[in-house]
From TrEMBL:
Pfam families for this protein: OMP_b-brl
Gene3D superfamilies: 2.40.160.20
Name this protein carries in UniProt: Opacity protein
InterPro entries found in the cross-reference section: Beta-barrel_OMP (IPR027385), OMP/PagP_B-barrel (IPR011250)
Signal peptide coordinates: 1-19
UniProt KW keywords: Signal
Entry keyword annotation includes Transcription: no
Stretches assigned to the Outer membrane protein beta-barrel domain: 6-188
Species the sequence originates in: Flavobacterium xueshanense
């Protein structure tokens, strides 16, 4: 696994050596669930990683595609009760985005994005004496986000973004905003390749 990661990193860096103006960036963020919903009440963010590719520039707007992957955790092991399980939620978020370049504030890059989110919930442990290990469920829905990146150097930037996800729920789950709305605040660091 480490060899594959190293090979991928070397490949990305070698691509950059042949390019004068790179259109790629990678980001690492800390996701913070917020709002009045089941994710904010039960889950903690672990990490979020992403990659962006800018494929077009129209005047002062970069258009591109991105993908993010993250992990959120619901850990009931701390409550010393009958519920002793952990649920990991793996997020996969492909998006299209538009990033604005402001000439008077060249280090500031506001952006918006639209896409889709897949949330894979994977449980392990016991719930009231029943083994829930291996149970898995996937929910998905549309995703909209906005944020801003600030250049620290020509290669390194910090960023903050807000993600709104509207999940589709199955017939067993009540169709309420508590169960369908997911709000994430992501704060992180990025690198232009």
């Amino acid at each position: 696994m480490k060899q594959k990661l190293l090979l991928a990193l070397l490949l990305i860096l070698s691509i950059k050596s042949f390019s004068q103006d790179s259109k790629f960036s990678i980001e690492a963020s800390y996701p913070i669930p917020i709002g009045d919903n089941f994710i904010a009440e039960n889950y903690n963010g672990i990490f979020d990683i992403g990659a962006k590719y800018r494929f077009s520039k129209i005047k002062n707007i970069n258009i591109g595609t991105s993908i993010n992957g993250g992990i959120l955790v619901n850990n009931t092991n701390d409550n010393n009760g009958n519920q002793d399980f952990k649920v990991k939620s793996y997020l996969i978020q492909p998006k299209l985005f538009a990033e604005l370049t402001i000439e008077s504030i060249s280090k500031l890059h506001p952006f918006i994005g639209f896409g889709y989110t897949f949330m894979v919930f994977d449980a392990s442990g016991t719930n009231n004496g029943f083994d829930v290990s291996g149970s898995s469920k996937t929910d998905s829905g549309i995703n909209a986000n906005f944020g801003v990146a600030y250049d620290i150097t020509t290669k390194i930037f910090i960023g903050i973004q807000y993600d709104y996800v509207k999940l589709k729920v199955d017939e067993e789950t009540p169709n309420t905003t508590f169960n369908t709305n997911v709000n994430l605040l992501k704060v992180g660091l990025g690198f232009r390749i």
